[in-house]
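Before relying on records like the one below, remember that each one covers exactly one chain. Contacts with other chains, cofactors or solvent are not represented anywhere in the record.
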Amino acid sequence: MAPKLSPTPETLVTRGWSDYALLDSGDGKKLERYGGHTVVRPEPQCFWSPRDPAAFDAANAVFDPQQEEEDSGRWRFDQHGPIDAFPLKWRDVRFAGRFTPFRHLAFFPEQAANWEWLDQRIRTLTASGSAKGDGQTGSSSPKGDSPTSNAPKILNLFGYTGVASLAAAAAGAEVTHVDASKKSVTYARENAELSGLADRPIRWIVEDARKYVAREVRRGSKYHGIILDPPKYGRGPTGEVWRLFEDMPGLLKDCAALLDDDADFLLLNAYAARISGLSLAHMMAEATHDRGGRIDWGELALSEDGADARAIGLSFFARWSR
């Protein structure tokens, strides 16, 4: 039976929490607070005027894009100089903020809407004991321990620095975290230590996502939930080239093949100007054509606080759930 496709999009809005806030926006920039640091980053969608221009001038760090490439450039810091990695948290997850050369701070705050959804889905699965499939992963679990039989098995592809993986682990899941960047996986493991989750059943894999998934399909491995947050373009550890528009349909179909009979979700997020939540939803509908359930779709947004808050749409998502 084909899944039911939601007829209307949904905007999942992330507002500030203790360690993050969108303070102001305008003139192609956004002013944010990360822990105790105020940061200015480019955001072309902000056509409006900032409410407090002086606050932008007083920021601790400003990212200057390189010519027309908003994702590459350099950071300028105030008189206190460069800022090293610094601690942040979201619920039970602790992680390090880092000033990367790609304007990001080693995580994406708008993804908190997805972390919230994952937390609820996994806690419900764990409490109800609904994850009853064998959840075979095709490999031994961390440190040679036996898998926790009634814990949901979650696969996180393009896992980056691991906040989603750690949110899933904190909620009670066994997690397989895959990323092609050894540095990103190292940061993810460090974040697990910061969170006090290093002893949880998390497998850390440095590999091209397509190669890993293809091997898992051959093994007959199964998962109760899969998370995908692919880049527009990337390279694997041995030179593999990833292109979102060319490679995503095939990878998504392979991921659907990895879903257990009682799988709970398949979540896809994408940052790309030439894509939409609806196009992701149709691609997901094709991949899960025989699974029933429903597909929700839309975009993730960051919002300022206050009654007249403005929100910025930043990425698109589609998610199948049973």
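The helical segments are 53-57, 112-128, 163-170, 182-195, 209-219, 244-257, 277-287.
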